[in-house]
Design brief:
The complex is a heterodimer.
Chain A: H1 2-16, H2 19-38, H3 42-48, E1 49-55, E2 58-60, H4 63-75, E3 84-90, H5 96-99, H6 103-112, E4 118-123, E5 129-137, E6 140-147
Parallel strand pairs in A: 1-6
Antiparallel strand pairs in A: 1-2, 3-4, 4-5, 5-6
Helix pairs in contact in A: 3-4
Chain B: H1 2-23, E1 26-32, E2 35-38, E3 44-46, E4 52-53, E5 58-61, E6 66-71, E7 74-78, E8 83-91, E9 94-110, E10 120-121, E11 126-138, E12 144-157, E13 160-164, E14 168-172, E15 182-183, H2 191-204, H3 206-252, H4 254-304, H5 312-331
Parallel strand pairs in B: 9-10
Antiparallel strand pairs in B: 1-4, 1-6, 2-3, 2-5, 5-8, 6-7, 7-9, 8-9, 9-11, 10-11, 11-12, 12-13, 12-14, 14-15
Classes of the chains: A alpha+beta, B alpha+beta.
Chain lengths: 150, 341
């Protein structure tokens, strides 16, 4: 039994480092995020979001503000139509530039973004771009930042 | 150049903040719900009774959070959804902590009045505590309200001071002098409604609200711009005096050097570190304004207008917001270090 568990864990480890598996995870992230927005799942979005959180160039520190953020977006009737996955990349020392070029955002990435985090970019049906900053968690992925639509 | 300045700042901050941190900690005597201490070094941890809040640290309470701090002479009751920071500054050659509240509300009770009570500041005013018990509220739009239960409190903004007596209150909008005093029935003030009114006032005219914030940002920047050249001058003088002291040591011996150090270098060094302290005080106040007032305004409007990004109110708001952000980045950020973020 122990041997099977070890083999399964090793297989999972190999799989998780495989490029196509990561690509699949990234596209799944886009699809599930789109679903949550389009079906108005505020609570789930709040639960998935971690503070400090990056919205464009703003560092949000209070959980209460995260609730306001997703609640307002849903209340405004925002929908993501025809999401098209563009790319997903691991966070590197220059990723902050995708959000905003400032000392605050650069420090945010350095201090608060977990190892293994990824930046996922996708386009919506009206040609606008959205960027998601996601980090690994035990049950999948958490959202640490959101930029767009722009 | 920026790296050198940052390194100098970090070194001076270490010298200034750490010794005072040990001399003036506040102790957590009660806590419930979601309460965190954000250490100056940038670490957040859940607060428990007995923890110490030192100079440079912040306290954050969630929507169900409440904390009481005890600091010998004062008891501070920090209400839900509040960010409270102890920022050091120098005034009349003495170092003092400033109780800083840019978001939420807190009540202060001074057990003994010594005349050296730390002032309380929000994004729109500074309250000098000559009273024994009062409450300060920081609203969504950067405005503040002070309500006195007992004693007297002097509320200052834009060069105008209003003295409040028991059962009196005043509201202050950012970048404006204090408003008219009003009578309050202690225990009957509806703080929740006041905050809702501030939020509604922001929604009604977000451009005016962000312009007021811009004015306040300019106030902090003017103070930094005034102090920074004086600091550079003092620092250059200090370097030159240190070199001179080496020459004195070589020519006149150890005793002469020690005397020169005590008479010239120590006072100059103290003056330089006090200048850094005050530059940092204004920079950290500007950062709080940027994070807890401007940032929340942006987040609220951006998400409300997410389907109408070309809305005229939103675009006008963004215009003022962007120019204030540029001012902040150009004049305040060089005075900040990573630990501040």
């Amino acid at each position: 039994m122990k041997k099977i568990m070890l083999i399964a864990a090793a297989a999972l480890l190999v799989l998780s480092s495989c490029a196509s598996f990561i690509h699949m995870q990234d596209t799944n992230t886009v699809n599930s995020f789109t679903d949550l927005i389009n079906t108005g799942k505020t609570d789930k979005l709040v639960k998935m979001s971690k503070t400090p959180f990056l919205l464009d160039q703003e560092i949000i520190v209070l959980t209460r503000d995260i609730k306001t953020l997703w609640r307002n977006i849903i209340k405004a009737g925002y929908k993501i139509k025809e999401p098209q996955f563009k790319n997903g990349e691991p966070v590197n020392e220059n990723t902050y530039l995708e959000f905003y070029n400032s000392m605050e955002v650069k420090t945010f990435f350095k201090k608060y973004v977990k190892k293994g985090s990824r930046v996922i970019q996708f386009k919506t049906g009206n040609g606008k771009r959205i960027i998601l900053l996601v980090e690994p968690s035990f049950f999948g992925r958490n959202i640490r930042g959101f930029k767009g639509p722009y | 150049m920026a790296k050198t300045r940052s390194a100098i700042l970090s070194a001076l901050l270490f010298l200034i903040i750490i010794p005072s941190a040990f001399s003036l900690p506040a102790e957590v005597v009660y806590t419930e719900g979601e309460t965190y201490i954000h250490e100056y070094e940038g670490v957040d941890y859940e607060a428990v009774i007995g923890d110490e809040v030192n100079t440079g640290d912040s306290v954050k309470t969630g929507s169900d959070g409440y904390m009481e701090l005890d600091r010998n002479d004062v008891t501070i009751k920090i209400n839900p959804d509040t960010v409270f920071t102890l920022i050091p500054r120098e005034e009349k050659s003495k170092k003092t902590d400033v109780f800083t509240l840019f978001l939420g509300s807190a009540s202060f009770r001074y057990n003994v009045l010594t005349g050296k009570e730390p002032p309380v500041q929000t994004s729109s005013m500074v309250a000098g505590a000559r009273g024994t018990e009062f409450t300060v509220l920081a609203g969504f739009d950067g405005s503040s309200m002070v309500v006195v239960k007992s004693g007297e409190v002097a509320v200052n903004s834009e060069g105008k001071t209003v003295n409040l007596k028991p059962q009196e209150g005043v509201q202050v909008n950012p970048g404006e002098p204090p408003g008219e005093k009003f009578r309050v029935l202690i225990g009957k003030v509806d703080y929740k409604k006041w905050n809702e009114d501030r939020f509604n006032s922001f929604i009604k005219d977000p451009v005016k609200a962000v312009e007021r914030t811009e004015n306040r940002m300019k106030f902090y920047i003017e103070n930094i711009s005034e102090l920074y050249p004086v600091y550079l001058e003092n620092r250059a003088k200090l370097d030159s005096e240190r070199k001179k002291n080496k020459e004195i040591k070589a020519k006149e011996g150890e005793e002469a050097s020690k005397k020169y150090f005590k008479d010239v270098i120590v006072p100059l060094s103290l003056k330089t570190s006090n200048l850094v302290l005050n530059i940092r005080y204004y920079a950290l106040s500007a950062l709080s304004l940027r994070r807890y007032i401007m940032g929340r305004m942006y987040m609220t409007l951006k998400t409300m207008y997410i389907t109408k990004p070309d809305n005229r109110t939103f675009t006008e708001f963004k215009k003022v917001f962007s120019q204030t952000l540029k001012l902040f980045e150009r004049s305040v950020v060089p005075q900040l270090v990573e630990a501040d973020i």
